[in-house]
């Protein structure tokens, strides 16, 4: 039997603190995930469902975007993938009677955890203007309402079409096509808050905004640097790849302000040895200050340049541009300034240099710790400089590895979900579909919030996600959303974005990855692209959560017909009937997808081309890989303040909260905690267990406050603090974004801690 959802809320947030762990995964992890899964879907469904995850004939895990190995285990999922599956395959339901019992004003008082725990959405629901509760609505009427609002706009650019990265390639392709036939490039997506900095930096330097390594490359490398990433929680299957690399002789350096358990030691539940003792993963831990990475890599680059025979001269001559200018800038890197910016010891950096010089094949992996700072783009460019110096791009066992988040976030971009589409992409789209595509760039996430806030955008449509909770500056974002005329969410589960609405609102329930997708043309499958550019099919098997649910492609196809009417010559009905016809079009529009239907029928899928990786060709403006020489920056920290990073606990998937524990960090039963170095706490006159308000300080002078956090002494780098997202999004100013990529700088928020009363 599956357990009942909680009826009370707020769930008592009463954190208990234990010692942090020094190893990840292993049997406790498997037991923990099965418990969560069984509460949601009972024993039998748990077993049936989990065995299908990431199998060649099964569905793609709706968790992270880590690739599947060629040789798969029966249980090719991880603890957190199991939680993601359970969250979707749950037997709990949110039906129209639930909405009658819970008016919007009531939903708005509930925690994200409570909302998510209520179960799957089953019916299209409508909140009329001035009404207090959502009421059931037919799909026909729902599409009619959206068409009315879109028709009434002065310009198509007053509509915003958001995507979260779980959307399949097929749905994403139709969605962007619909938005562009409607007349706008306003296609912000979760990438804008995530790996946009990686895309910006990589496109400029190597010509392709994606990672250049395969799983095989990782297994074969000599040195893997993991910077700003917590794979033990967020990409647990990556630990198996790191373990395999180590077995083949690789060394691992991890660069992080926090000692993350998964990187220290990994107990692989799929090998007998792993179960018993586990493998130590990290050979060198560089406990860096938040935002110190650019300075660190710049100094390493200087030291490499100074070492006789260390640079790959032939590669640099043949394949790169801007070397001289970069070498001049790097020569200025200074030990004292770097030690101050990074908080590291000289000896640790010297040890890192020895390991770098000993490696012929180096990979750098990174995630949000590098992408969510003001200077993220120059930081990632410096990582590219570092790899270029020793010819580590386009060589087996070496390269750049931005580890993506959402399971199809990379594919959505490939399909054209992007507010700044390349002209060549629009040309191909126009040719295929006989319409004139808008050329002006659209809004990204931050610009979309400003447009809603200022009344320049009036309709907000979301294909998945939880825009209100995921976005920065919660109060500003919520006020912006409430100004919209209509907000629409295509969703699987209830979340806060359904409770903070425009004048009118719609919730459109959709199928998840795990569910059977039957259309009039027969059973359908969809495709996804993983973090390493592998494309493969995903087939759900479970009975859909309700008979009313429509698939995402069906929703877009019907919406497009209703909104575009006679003005479209695109065969939307065909697309809905048979997704193979969508793939035929993708094959003609997007390079690398030739013979898409045929190639994706192979169980292991196929790899998209990547010019730098495959042929050391760099499709940049200069035709070469570009060295860049930005000035070194790092966050300034005023006296008596801390730099706060907002990050994920072990029991959450972005804004979806699975539970209240962060097991590896030793936090139980609570999320309102702030991790502070004991010496910093003492310096501020604060102590472990005390409650504080977090107050963010930004140059606009506005006070942003997150009240009531339990202070936890934690071995983080000096001057740095950490607390969970999305509770702390209220502290991230809308205008505090990364240069160039415009990604919210949610890993470097200057805060002061004010003593607060303990909760009653
Ligand atoms: N279970 C689970 N899996 C997930 C997700 C989830 O929420 N739950 N989310 C998915 C998504 S969308 C994404 S984008 C990824 C996110 O994956 P991660 O990027 O691993 O997620 P975060 O929790 O934000 O962790 C950031 C890490 O970077 C470190 N860090 C922070 N600032 C710095 C810095 O300045 N320098 C360095 N060197 N390190 C720093 C932090 O200490 C932390 O270890 O995970 C994906 N997978
Ligand atoms: N402060 C701070 N803010 C951050 C971050 C941070 O580290 N710190 N990280 C940022 C990052 S990396 C990201 S990616 C964003 C995430 O931003 P989003 O992608 O917008 O947020 P999620 O929490 O992943 O979205 C969860 C919702 O997606 C819906 N959903 C789940 N599966 C499906 C599906 O198959 N189809 C549809 N249609 N809906 C589905 C459910 O209704 C669920 O409630 O947040 C960003 N915000
Ligand atoms: Mo992400």
* Total number of beta strands: 32
CATH classification class of the largest domain? Alpha Beta
Class computed from helices, strands and strand pairing? alpha/beta
Unreliable runs, pLDDT <50, ≥5 residues?
A: none
Characterization of this structure:
There is one protein chain. By secondary structure, the protein is α/β, with parallel strands linked by helices. The protein has three domains: 93-194 and 408-612, Rossmann fold (3-Layer(aba) Sandwich); 196-403, 3-Layer(aba) Sandwich (Dimethylsulfoxide Reductase, domain 2), CATH 3.40.228; 642-755, Barwin-like endoglucanases (Beta Barrel). The protein is built from 31 helices and 32 strands. Strand 4 and strand 5 (135-136) form a beta hairpin. Molybdenum atom binds at residues 190, 194, 405-406.
How would the blueprint of this fold be written?
Elements: E1 16-17, H1 27-50, H2 79-89, E2 93-94, H3 96-101, H4 104-107, H5 112-117, E3 120-121, E4 125-127, E5 135-136, H6 139-151, E6 159-163, H7 169-182, H8 196-206, H9 215-220, E7 223-227, H10 231-234, H11 236-247, E8 251-255, H12 261-264, E9 265-266, H13 272-276, E10 279-280, E11 284-286, H14 293-306, H15 313-319, E12 320-321, H16 323-331, H17 335-342, H18 346-358, E13 362-366, H19 368-371, H20 376-389, E14 399-402, H21 409-414, H22 423-433, H23 445-453, E15 459-463, H24 467-470, H25 474-482, E16 486-491, E17 504-509, E18 517-519, E19 522-524, E20 526-529, E21 534-538, H26 552-564, H27 572-577, H28 579-589, H29 596-600, E22 606-607, H30 611-615, E23 625-626, E24 642-647, E25 652-653, E26 656-657, E27 667-668, E28 673-676, H31 678-683, E29 691-696, E30 704-713, E31 720-724, E32 749-755
Parallel strand pairs: 2-3, 6-15, 7-8, 7-13, 8-11, 12-23, 13-14, 15-16, 16-17, 24-31, 28-30
Antiparallel strand pairs: 1-27, 4-5, 4-17, 9-10, 18-19, 20-21, 21-22, 24-32, 25-26, 28-31, 29-30, 29-32
Helix pairs in contact: 1-2, 6-26, 7-26, 8-20, 14-17, 14-18, 14-20, 23-25
The protein binds ligand MGD (2 copies) and molybdenum atom.
């Amino acid at each position: 039997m599956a357990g009942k959802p909680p009826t009370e809320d707020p769930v008592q947030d009463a954190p208990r603190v234990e010692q942090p762990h020094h190893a990840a995964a292993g049997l406790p992890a498997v037991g923990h995930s099965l418990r969560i899964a069984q509460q949601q879907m009972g024993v039998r469904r748990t077993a049936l469902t989990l065995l299908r995850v990431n199998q060649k004939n099964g569905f793609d895990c709706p968790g992270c975007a880590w690739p599947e190995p060629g040789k798969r285990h029966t249980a090719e999922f991880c603890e957190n993938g199991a939680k993601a599956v359970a969250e979707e395959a749950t037997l709990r339901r949110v039906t129209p009677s639930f909405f009658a019992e819970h008016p919007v004003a009531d939903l708005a008082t509930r925690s994200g955890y409570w909302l998510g725990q209520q179960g799957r959405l089953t019916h299209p629901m409508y909140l009329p203007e001035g009404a207090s509760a959502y009421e059931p609505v037919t799909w026909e009427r729902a599409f009619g309402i959206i068409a009315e609002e879109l028709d009434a706009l002065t310009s198509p650019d007053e509509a915003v079409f958001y995507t979260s990265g779980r959307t399949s390639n097929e749905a994403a392709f139709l969605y962007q096509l619909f938005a562009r036939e409607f007349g706008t490039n306003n296609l912000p997506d979760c990438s804008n808050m995530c790996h946009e900095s990686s895309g910006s930096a990589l496109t400029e330097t190597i010509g392709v905004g994606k990672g250049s390594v395969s799983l095989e490359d990782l297994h074969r490398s000599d040195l893997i640097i993991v910077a700003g990433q917590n794979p033990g929680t967020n990409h647990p299957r990556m630990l198996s790849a790191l373990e395999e690399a180590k077995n083949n002789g690789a060394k691992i350096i991890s660069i992080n302000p926090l000692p993350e358990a998964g990187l220290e030691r990994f107990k692989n539940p799929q090998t007998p040895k792993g179960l018993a003792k586990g493998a130590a993963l990290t050979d060198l831990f560089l406990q860096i200050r938040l935002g110190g990475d650019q300075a660190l890599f710049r100094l390493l680059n200087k030291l490499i340049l100074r070492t006789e025979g260390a640079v790959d001269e032939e590669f640099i001559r043949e394949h790169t541009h801007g070397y001289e200018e970069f070498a001049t800038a790097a020569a200025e890197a200074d030990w004292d300034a770097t030690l101050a910016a990074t908080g590291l010891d000289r000896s640790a950096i010297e040890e890192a240099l020895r390991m770098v010089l000993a490696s012929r094949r180096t990979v750098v992996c990174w995630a949000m710790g590098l992408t969510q700072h003001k200077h993220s783009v120059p930081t990632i460019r410096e990582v590219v400089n570092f790899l270029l110096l020793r010819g580590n791009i386009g060589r087996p066992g070496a390269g750049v590895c931005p580890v993506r988040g959402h399971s199809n976030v990379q594919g959505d971009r490939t399909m054209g979900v992007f507010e700044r589409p390349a002209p060549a992409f629009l040309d191909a789209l126009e040719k295929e579909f006989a319409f004139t595509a808008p050329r002006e760039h659209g809004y990204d996430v931050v610009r979309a919030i400003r447009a809603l806030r200022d009344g320049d955008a009036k309709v907000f449509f979301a294909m998945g996600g939880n825009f209100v909770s995921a976005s920065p500056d919660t109060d500003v974002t919520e006020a912006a959303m409430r100004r919209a005329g209509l907000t629409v969410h295509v969703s699987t589960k209830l979340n806060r974005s359904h409770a903070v609405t425009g004048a009118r609102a719609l919730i459109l329930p959709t199928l998840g990855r795990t569910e059977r997708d039957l259309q009039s043309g027969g059973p359908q499958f969809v495709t996804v692209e993983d973090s390493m550019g592998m494309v493969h099919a995903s087939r759900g098997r479970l009975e859909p959560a309700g008979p009313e649910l429509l698939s995402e492609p069906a929703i877009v196809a019907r919406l497009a017909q209703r909104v575009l009417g006679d003005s479209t010559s695109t065969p939307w009905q065909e697309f809905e009937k048979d997704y193979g016809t969508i793939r035929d079009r993708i094959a003609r529009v997007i390079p690398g997808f030739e013979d898409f239907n045929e190639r994706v029928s192979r169980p292991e899928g196929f790899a998209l081309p990547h010019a730098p990786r495959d042929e050391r060709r760099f499709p940049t403006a200069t035709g070469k890989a570009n060295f860049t020489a930005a000035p070194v920056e790092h966050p300034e920290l005023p006296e008596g303040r801390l730099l706060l990073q907002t990050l994920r606990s072990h029991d959450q998937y972005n804004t979806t909260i699975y539970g209240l524990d962060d097991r590896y960090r030793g936090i139980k039963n609570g999320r309102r905690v702030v991790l502070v170095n004991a010496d910093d706490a003492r310096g501020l006159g604060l102590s472990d267990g005390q409650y504080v308000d977090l107050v963010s300080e930004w140059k606009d002078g506005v006070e942003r406050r997150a009240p009531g956090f339990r202070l936890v002494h934690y071995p983080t780098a000096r001057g740095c603090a950490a607390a969970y997202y999305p509770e702390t999004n209220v502290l991230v100013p809308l205008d505090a974004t990364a240069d160039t990529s415009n990604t919210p700088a949610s890993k470097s928020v200057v805060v002061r801690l004010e003593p607060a009363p303990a909760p009653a």
